[in-house]
Specification:
Elements: E1 10-15, E2 18-23, E3 32-36, E4 40-42, H1 46-49, E5 56-58, E6 63-66, E7 78-79, E8 85-90, E9 95-100, E10 111-112, H2 116-123, H3 131-165, H4 170-190
Parallel strand pairs: 7-10
Antiparallel strand pairs: 1-2, 3-9, 4-6, 5-6, 8-9
Helix pairs in contact: 3-4
The protein binds zinc ion (ZN).
């Protein structure tokens, strides 16, 4: 792991998806945290255009920063759909800075939104792992669970009623109704 000097307000650390950049000091909203830097690639130069890695930061149609260099600690910053920082892109200066858009507390992971193109190409197919999306998924799972419980309860009540009318058949009928209702809910939850 690369060493970070102590006067910087961040460090590289373990995140849910590998490594990430974490605040070590309070960072005020609006503060420039770190520069995303590396060699500048010119798309008009064929050798430059051939370079491919996941740390390329496009400034515009022509210029791209190759952020794969070791010293570029900003490359550790992960994507979030509800980030606490943003990329301040300056194509004319060919520079990118990462800036806080919220107050960040020590221990918080620093994130910015990688943008729609990146999301569609890399995150959507595998499912975004950012805290905001995890939370959304958790909520959906809880709702599906509650819905399944409701349907099951309804089926049981129905079975009880039916059983009361024909006591002899109670066991068989309950089983059948339950199986039917559960099969239906599972299908809906998956869709
Ligand atoms: Zn997300």
């Amino acid at each position: 792991m690369p060493a970070t000097s102590s006067h910087k307000p961040y460090r590289v650390g373990r995140s849910k998806t590998g490594l990430g950049l974490f605040a070590t000091k309070p960072i005020k909203k609006g503060t420039r945290i770190i520069r995303y830097f590396g060699p500048i690639l010119d798309s008009r130069i064929p050798e430059h255009d051939e370079i491919e890695n996941k740390y390329l930061f496009e400034l515009n149609g022509r210029w791209t920063i190759d952020g794969s260099v070791r010293k570029n600690l900003a490359r550790y910053i992960n994507h979030s759909c509800r980030p606490n920082a943003e990329s301040d892109v300056r194509p004319r200066e060919r520079k990118v800075f990462i800036r806080a858009i919220r107050n960040i507390e020590p221990g918080d992971e620093i994130n910015y939104d990688y943008g729609t193109d990146y999301f569609k190409a890399y995150l959507k197919p595998i499912g975004c792992k950012c805290a905001s999306c995890e939370k959304k998924r958790k909520k959906l799972r809880a709702e599906a669970r509650a819905e399944r419980a409701k349907v099951k309860e309804r089926a049981e009540r129905k079975a009880e009623k039916a059983g009361a009318k024909t006591p002899k058949n109670k066991a068989a009928k309950t089983k059948k109704l339950n199986g039917h209702a559960l099969g239906k809910t599972n299908g809906r939850a998956r869709a």
